[in-house]
Structures are given as C-alpha cells and as structure tokens.
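Here is one chain, start to finish.
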Amino acid sequence: MAVDGLDGTVTDPDIAPMHPLLAEIENKLRARFAPSLLRVQDESHQHAGHGGAAEHARDFGEAAPSHVHIEIASDELGAMGRLARHRAVQEAIAEQVETLHALRLTIGG
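Its structure:
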C-alpha cells in the first residue's frame, strides 16, 4: 500500500481510502503531538446493531465512523499524567469527537 499523503489518499486499488474524518483526526494529532506512534482505527463494524447505531447513521451518514480507537505515543504526552494525556488528545480533536458515538484512547510516551 502506498499512502500519497497525510490526507489518507491510498494508491493501492485493493485498499479502501481512509474516511475523511479519520484523516482529519490523524492530521490534527500529527501536527499537534509529532507522535512516534499513531494509529487511527474505525471500530464501528464491531458495534453495528448496537443502541445508537441507527441514529448515528441517520445523523452523520452510513459510512461515517461512530466508534474510533486511537493509539498514540509522543514525548509530550509521555511527560503528562494519564488524565492530562486524555484531555490533551480530546482537545486537539474536539471538533471531530463531536461526531463520534465512542472514542477509545491508548496513549503512551
């Protein structure tokens, strides 16, 4: 797979491009924290049919991620306490978080 840029554009025809919301999250976190590790994963498929899934699809579209897992590590985050790390990440992507049903964070230094 070849990713053309941080916008999530994929040149491999066998791999679906990253949803624009996930690309926005990735871009903001890269710019804010310069992470040594960053994974932004859509886990919505694991929650299909759960309470709120239909409402989320209605409000944001069928393809819009509802459950996202972010794994991130950076020196800046590593110097913070656990609560401060979570607050910093959520503040960096506050606009995008508003459209999610659930956000799971794994944060390291």
